[in-house]
User: Fold these one by one.
Assistant:
Number 1:
Amino acid sequence: MYRQGDILILPVSEEAVPQSVRELRPAPRDGRGRMVLALGEATGHAHALSAPGSLLRAPDPLAPDHLHLPSGGRLVHEEHAAITLPRGWYRVIRQREYVPGTVRVVAD
């Protein structure tokens, strides 16, 4: 299990990744070629990886994302220590907060 700020990254076995997730189109990379797990609204900082692989994002913003890293990668953020992730599959969960009347994901 890995945590970087408001992002929780859980390793999962390949068998545990639902077929519906595997059928999702990978999220586009940013202008720098990075997979951005979360972007800070206030600072513009990003939890991002520059590595081979794919970020599979469900249409529901509260659903966990899935990350596939066939050769591992390094998760970086301007305000946190970098984290080296071994190759494999991961479930990416964003911290949530309750705002009267709704639940939303936390943004740095």
Number 2:
Amino acid sequence: MPAPKRLLALAVAAPLLLSACTTDGGGDSGGEGSAGSPAGGDLTFSVITHGSAGDAFWDVVQNGTEQAGEDLGIDVDYQSDGDPQRQAQLIDAAVNSDVDGIVVSMANPDALEDSISAAVEAGIPVVTINSGGDRSDEFGAIGHVGQDEAIAGRGAGEELAAGGARKVLCVVHEAGNIGHQQRCDGASEGLGAPVTPLQVDINDLQGAQSAIASQLQGDATIDAVLTLNSAVAAVAVEAAADAGSEARVATFDLNEDVIAGIQAGDIAFAVDQQQYEQGYLPIVMLKLYAENLNTVGGGQPVLTGPGIVDAENVDEIADLASAGTR
């Protein structure tokens, strides 16, 4: 299948990493990882994200981690909690369990710093994903997998500008998530004009719809709405209809509703960060490190996007999304 068009950043493909791995829990190399797991021994990795259970985006991340574990013969424990303090506690519990590696998303790096540092000090390799990539090396992680939020935001802004947008509402759905601010700031840069931020609650989609509709009713010059979450995109479409607005809706991230919306012409495009790779690749990276002390990225993030999915390529993506891998 062709890659999403207009890729805006380098995405490192899983096969390049898999070529250095065995397909079972063992390994032929004679090295020993810093966590003390000899090659050929069983490995257990803990994945701790800030996503909510049942969230379409994080379900795909979890699918990636679990498939990598199955493919590589590794025990992978996936947990998530949107509260940064509870997420930190999950990291602490993983350290106390003496796992062989930890994967963690860092929407709120300051809240997780002590727990991640404790993992590193205990000799447990950490790979960060999704958010907080600019702090990953500072915290001692061996790598980061995700998209650069500023680059992704800039790409979204440029795409909106190419479609004629001049005044954009940027809908933020998680308070305190630094990646969301970076997306909106990047969109402003790409658009060539400041976006208007709107804070909503991802756990109250009806309230989000009402807030977006109210903003559109109050300012008829808004000609585009950029959401940062696929679930919010769906209610933004409804909000525009409620407000009688012709504002175009675009979004970050994919789910089946977004794909259907693009196919129907209700959503202009989605910025795809290929979150399946954000689940899969860190498991490969931790296995390589545990068995051969390999690192990936040379101190730079391993970028999984972004790419633009729109009417031109959405049909190619639809079946993969239905299968839970896009």
Number 3:
Amino acid sequence: MYIKDDIAYAGESEPLLKVIGVKAMDDYRLWLRFSNHEERLFDMEPLLAYPAFSKLQDPDLFKGVYLDYGVPTWGEGTIDVAPETLYEQSVQVMQSA
């Protein structure tokens, strides 16, 4: 049993999802590797219209993405995106055999 937001749930809680690898790609996409070992692609372009992300329209700043405790981050920690959002809104990269 575990408790989240004052609600008790049966079973074990899901481990926190973290990004363990990130690379900025062309066209404002991110290649991501998650702690569950999935590789996924996330399109940042729709977020660039929001003031919080507008500085990432600068390609040099966008390409400067780095991980801070499992969270993709830019600009000395002033811009980040939650791993859960990245996972839910990304597409899985197909692995070749």
